């Protein structure tokens, strides 16, 4: 079964509510993100304990396990991006192909208990990183390879949509 790569530019979630999951980035601040990360990570534990967690619902949709492995890696990637923004002036982020990562790391074959532990650890690390953003650093900038520019604050609001949206995907 092959997943069609997601090539959409999701930065629009910074401007309006997501019609699929209902997330509204305009309703949160940088200070809200650590709590939202921890809440999201806790919910994934029950998802990963489900029977059939590795079964895909259809040929074009990731299994709950694959979504969870992706969310774990989103936590890791965005912690790295945040750290880069705080260490350098307007850095360019290394490109990340989430679909290639899913294939290369065999998301569908990973152990749910291992993913659960790793997701929890990655969530806590990114939550702590956002909590540790120094006062006045929220407007530091960074850029993706496609030219999308973020401040630390907008990166936080953009980032948290991804795990929230994917939790909606597996609940929906």
TrEMBL record:
<dbReference type="InterPro" id="IPR034660">
    <property type="entry name" value="DinB/YfiT-like"/>
</dbReference>
<keyword id="KW-0489">Methyltransferase</keyword>
<protein>
    <submittedName>
        <fullName>Methyltransferase type 12</fullName>
    </submittedName>
</protein>
<dbReference type="GO" id="GO:0032259">
    <property type="term" value="P:methylation"/>
</dbReference>
<keyword id="KW-0808">Transferase</keyword>
<dbReference type="GO" id="GO:0008168">
    <property type="term" value="F:methyltransferase activity"/>
</dbReference>
<feature type="domain" description="DinB-like">
    <location>
        <begin position="38"/>
        <end position="168"/>
    </location>
</feature>
<dbReference type="InterPro" id="IPR024775">
    <property type="entry name" value="DinB-like"/>
</dbReference>
<dbReference type="Pfam" id="PF12867">
    <property type="entry name" value="DinB_2"/>
</dbReference>
């Amino acid at each position: 079964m092959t997943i069609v790569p997601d090539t959409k530019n999701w930065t629009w979630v910074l401007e309006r509510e997501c019609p699929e999951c209902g997330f509204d980035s305009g309703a949160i601040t940088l200070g809200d993100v650590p709590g939202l990360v921890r809440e999201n990570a806790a919910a994934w534990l029950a998802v990963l304990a489900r029977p059939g967690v590795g079964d895909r619902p259809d040929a074009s949709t990731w299994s709950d396990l694959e979504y969870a492995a992706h969310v774990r890696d989103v936590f890791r990637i965005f912690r790295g991006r945040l750290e880069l923004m705080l260490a350098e002036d307007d850095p360019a982020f290394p490109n990340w192909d989430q679909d290639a990562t899913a294939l290369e790391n065999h998301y569908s074959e990973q152990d749910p208990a291992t993913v659960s532990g790793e997701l929890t650890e990655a969530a806590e690390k990114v939550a702590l990183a956002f909590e540790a953003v120094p006062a006045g650093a929220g407007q530091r900038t960074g850029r993706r390879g496609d030219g999308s520019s973020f401040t630390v604050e907008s990166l936080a609001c953009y980032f948290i949509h991804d795990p929230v949206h994917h939790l909606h995907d597996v609940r929906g």
